[in-house]
Amino acid sequence: MEDRLRFGLLGPVQAWAGDRPVVLGPPMQRAVLAALLLHANRVTSVDELVDLLWDAGPPRTARKNVQLYVWRLRKLLGDRLVSSPPGYRIAVDPADLDVARFEDLLRAARTEVRAGRSEQAGGLYRSALDLWRGEPLADVAGIGTFGAGAARLDRSRLTAYEEYIDVELDLDRHHAVLPLLDDLVTRYSLHERFAEQQVTTLHHLGRRGAAVDAYLRCRRALADELGLRPGPVLQRLGELARGSADPPVPGPREPALRELPHTVAAFVGRQRELAVLRERLTDRPGPAIPLCVVTGPAGVGKSALAIRAAHQVADAFPDGQLYADLRGATAGLRPAAPIDVLGRFLRVLGVADNAVPTEVAEASARLRSLLADRRLLLVLDNAHDAAQVRPLIPAGTRCAVLVTSRRNLIDVDGASHLELDVLADADAVELLVRLAGSHRVAAEADTAALLVRRLGGLPLAIRIAGARLAARPNWTLATLADRLHDERRRLHELRLGDIAVRTSFLVSYQHLADPMATRLFRLLGAVDGPDVTAPVAAVLLDVDPPQALDALDELVDARLLDETAAGRYAMHDLIRLFARERANDEPPAERDAAVDRMLAHHLDLTRHALGLLRPGTRTPPITGPPRFADADTALAWLTIERTNLVAATVQAAGSAAHARRGADLADSLYLFFEMSGHVADWLTVDRAGIDAAVRLNDQVTEARLRHDLAAAYFYLHRPDEAARHLEHSLLISRAAGDDEGRARALNQFGVLHGMAGDYERAAEFFKDSLRLRRKLGDERSCAAAQGNIGMAYRLAGRLEESVRHCRAAASLARRAAAPEVEVNALGNLGEVQCMLGRYSSALRYLRRSLAIAGVPANERNRGSIMGTLADAYLGTGRPGPAIKYAELAVDAMRRADFRHGEALALRRAGRILCAHGDPGRGVEQLRLALALFTDLKLPEAAEVRAELRAARP
């Protein structure tokens, strides 16, 4: 039985087939589904969808994009989604759409309220509100005009909450509903109705002081944000609560305490952060004490910021400021015990030594009593964890607490958190100026910018660098930059007296509580790549993913790792250098085994992904369960992980222990780069793979990778380098008796001669390749070679022979399930038909080709097909579609990073525009084409110059 499809918009856009979530694709595709579901069971026109997705600025390809998204959704949803001119309609049972269920439950609840059945109404309201998973349309609300729809849904939710709370209050459930009201008032501080209900509830419960605070908090929010006064109902409730509240009793005053350390002289930037801290420490909106926690990695400047902010708000705390270094970041010392800090605070506040309690709970209670009526700021610097901080927090609302910590102290109740990042480049350079001198930095401005980037914008590192320059007036900035160039010595150079970046990191490392987190940190130092995911961490540790997540969380809490995006973790550059040092503490055999597991993981997923994208091409047979839901998901994974895969390939190739993995990764990634471009990474991977193959004395793989490298040079239009690697590849394949390698090299020689304009010679090479491929019995490769012969004959003007070979190639490719080969063959047939003036026939071939090339896309192929479609439409006298496809061809070639193809597409677009009504844009396209042809040193540059001269009025 087919799984029942259910849909959700009350949160991120989601769908489920039974209990299994459906992967809905990229945001724009989910947005199309959301638009259709918002109009479920009725037609949504294409124009409406375009307006929803792009508002006032849709691209020229908007309608085509909508069609593509709908086509992809149909593959996921089946016949639920149908074409119905002038648009599309999705058929959904109301029970299977959370918005419809929510509205039905609201109607039923209101019916029960009108009938006086409050108990039943409350249950229905709860059922309705339980359907919500977060903000409505959360993942698409920022697209086009979806924000309005999200706002409408959110208003319905707020109304439901208002009505539900009224029902609960009617049932005298004030205690039960108060936590919900507190949460709603926090989230919707400007929503007066929730404030009215909260003040009423607190007043009813006898908490009159809290009711007054709630009223004042809402009044302040309305004034600050909207410049408004509360409405009459809320004002009256506030007056009632205030009329019976007890006035505060002033306490005795002691001489003010002034314990803050001095602020650093060279302090730059952080104006936004200072403003946030000033506001949070001095604003008293309610019963909770202002409690701010500043977090960030070692050396980022948390203490400097906190002390400066404390000085700026000191006047707001007339009873003074207490300061304690809790030693959570001090090398060689244990974090301060709470009882010791409490004892010092109590003695400062006048408690005699023999009267200071020796138990934490008693001492903490005594501190709260002494501070109850004082207005005093506590600065708790370098906290180790929440358990160290909690006993030091006063209870009265007149005090405030400012905490700094490397850890995210999320388990400190009532705290607001401020995350501190490294300095922006401009602020980092300004800090260097303050320390080393403006004339010195101005004389080497470029070196200064390089220096702060090399230090990763970390204030501690920049302060050490600046102090070293100040102490050595004979050094130039270049002198220090050279000393910091060697990554193996960089941390060694970043020290000054007893201050060192390495020591600062070491404290965080030594304070890790989980041995698995300590080991993961070492192993992350043993692998290259910009970031890591939980699955990779699990592979490195050889544990289950939940255990790896615990270790990652510990490293994030210790600020040795940052979660840069959901599920992705990265290190600051200097912390990575420290991790590499710590990697040497891991037993070599275990370290190598962990790296090998990671490389095997990357290779396995790469092969699975490319097995979906290019089935039967180069990738070995895939075993085990599928790793990806579909080809789109596979392509997305390769795209996201590209930089990690490149780094892993280079690392493996450079190691005797992992050279096999490096060669295999490079070999597999060729198919991805051939589809997507990224030529710089393509070159890097193939060069590394060749080095690994040579190290392994694997001639077959070396020949294959030299062929791949030649293909990358074709992409760059560098035929001489391509020929050199092809000759080497062919020579190695012959020596090794590798007929498959010989056939591959001969095929590329055909491409090389075709690029040089020697089409007859190119056809001979393709035929030689075809003979070897027939001997090997590889239908897919035979189809590709046959199609290449057809292409060469087309270029040579032997059109009827080209048609015969291309038709044979298309037929063979279909039989071999080789869509990318069939795309090329049909595209060539379309071009031949254009040359023969058979434009209607050309359109049929090209549309078929484009449909096959659609998903997942080889952008280079798509660009070529769309360019030919432009020619075909122009041949049928339809310049509008011709212009559209000519411009789409340019976009596709750019995405493919294929500069020669982009130049050709620009030239075509320019010609069509000049000839059909928009010469201004046409000349612009021709100029762009000329720039590319000139940069590539191609003869077409002279032809385009002549075309530009002719296009001028």
Automatic annotation (TrEMBL):
Keywords: DNA-binding, TPR repeat. GO terms for biological process: phosphorelay signal transduction system; regulation of DNA-templated transcription. Pfam families: AAA_16, BTAD, TPR_12, Trans_reg_C. Residues 1-92 form the OmpR/PhoB-type domain. SMART domains: BTAD, TPR, Trans_reg_C. InterPro entries: AAA_16, BTAD, OmpR/PhoB-type_DNA-bd, P-loop_NTPase, Sig_transdc_resp-reg_C-effctor, TPR-like_helical_dom_sf, TPR_rpt, WH-like_DNA-bd_sf. Gene3D superfamilies: Tetratricopeptide repeat domain, Winged helix-like DNA-binding domain superfamily/Winged helix DNA-binding domain. It comes from the Bacteria. GO terms for molecular function: ADP binding; DNA binding. Residues 1-92 bind DNA. TPR repeats lie at residues 743-776. Belongs to the AfsR/DnrI/RedD regulatory family. This is Regulatory protein AfsR. The lineage of its organism: Bacteria, Bacillati, Actinomycetota, Actinomycetes, Micromonosporales.
